[in-house]
Write a structure and sequence with these properties.
single chain; alpha/beta; Rossmann fold; four-stranded parallel β-sheet; 4 helices; 12% strand; Laminin-binding surface protein; signal; metal ion binding; transport
């Protein structure tokens, strides 16, 4: 009886010691930046550029982009990130409400459409956006 108890105690002790071994599978610290994107196209482009160097996540999944309102968890994910990538205030009006507070935080904000300029179409240089397209010019 004492031998069985002793053997069981040894087996349990060895299992516990083996479970405490830290060198077997050390978890690598996350390198790079934590990036949060607003919807799938922004996620896909950011992930393609970033590769595996950064942790890229998307807050929207399945919701329509125009009617999307971020949840408390979505806003928390944005504030915990190093970089927030979204398309524009025009497409994502909810991002406008976050902007003043994000500028005060550690989060870098990238509005993806901001650096873009509209191309001028030959023959339509004088047309303003509010005029629309004249069918005679087509």
């Amino acid at each position: 009886m004492k031998k069985v108890f002793f053997l069981m105690a040894m087996v349990v002790s060895l299992v516990m010691i083996a479970g405490c071994d830290k060198s077997a599978n050390p978890k690598q610290p996350t390198q790079g930046m934590s990036v949060v994107t607003s919807f799938y196209p922004m996620y896909a482009m950011t992930k393609e550029v970033s590769g595996d160097l950064n942790d890229v996540r998307m807050i929207q999944s399945g919701a329509g982009i125009h009617s999307f309102e971020p949840s408390v968890n979505d806003v928390a994910a944005i504030y915990d990130a190093d970089l927030f990538v979204y398309h524009s205030h025009t497409l994502e009006a909810w991002a406008r409400d976050l902007d003043p507070n994000l500028k005060k935080s550690k989060v870098n904000v990238f509005e993806a459409s901001k650096p873009l300029t509209l191309d001028r179409v030959k023959g339509l240089e004088d047309m303003e956006v509010t005029q629309g397209i004249d069918p005679a010019t087509l």
